[in-house]
Amino acid sequence: MTRRSLLLALMSATGAMAVTDLAQKPAAPKPQDKFALANENVKELLLLLDTDKNGRISKQEWMNFMDAEFNKLDKDGNGELDPKELRQSRLSVR
């Protein structure tokens, strides 16, 4: 996978997690709570991606997750994400 593809995949995962996180938390965290929220996000990420439950995310586990997420976004199954699919995904780059 190229560096650009990996970056896009990382942005997609981060965006998807951010959308989920925003939907669950109505108020912005106080500055002192950001570290606690980051730790919670790391725990959630480990629970979601660490399929062999060894406490770490392997490259293969990461790529399997990204492949599944891409396939969810690729509604027409053509192996590419078009502008409509991206708009429907509600992903954003910060």
Secondary structure: helix percent = 55-70%
What does the average pLDDT come to? 77
Number of strands: 0
Give the percentage of residues in beta strands: under 5%
Number of helices: 4
Write down the overall geometry: flat
Distance between the termini: 23 Å
Overview of this protein structure:
The protein is an all-alpha fold. The protein contains four helices and no strands. It has one domain (3-89). It has helices spanning 3-24, 34-49, 59-73, 83-89. Helices cover 64% and strands 0% of the residues. It is flat, with a radius of gyration of 15 Å. The longest helix has 22 residues, at 3-24. The mean pLDDT is 77.
In short:
64% of the residues lie in helices and 0% in strands. It is mostly helical and 94 residues long. It has one domain (3-89).
Offer a few descriptive terms.
mainly alpha, flat, 94 residues, 64% helix
Give the SSE layout.
Elements (H helix, E strand, L loop, with lengths): L2 H22 L9 H16 L9 H15 L9 H7 L5
